[in-house]
Amino acid sequence: MTILDGQTPARGRPDRRADRAAGRLRAARRGYERSAAHLRSAALDQVERHGLISAVLRASLGRLAQSCPADS
Predict the structure, then answer these.
(1) Cα 17 versus chain centre, distance
(2) Reduced to 3 states, what is the DSSP secondary structure of residue 7?
């Protein structure tokens, strides 16, 4: 049996299946990396929004405390 470059000994045909599988794996890895980057970005945006909301609420509470003095 003669084996040519790029062929498998078991079937004697080009190893296209392995190439396609490797391509799918690379595509899946790229998709995962993009998804992870988007998730990190969304998490950071969420943290920043919480910080902004917290600052606004503290300022509002401070103004409310000044406008309504506590009964002593």
Answers:
(1) 29
(2) strand
What pTM does this model have? 0.52
Q: How far from each other are the two terminal CA atoms of the chain, in whole angstroms?
A: 101
Locus of tokens 């890895």: 29
Share of residues in the chain with pLDDT > 70 (%): 76
DSSP 2: -
**What contacts 6, CB < 8 A, 6 or more positions away?**
14, 15
Quick one: CA dihedral 50, 52, 58, 60, positive or negative?
negative
Query: Could you identify the residue written with the tokens 């902004």?
Result: 52
Longest Cα–Cα distance of the chain, Å, equals 101
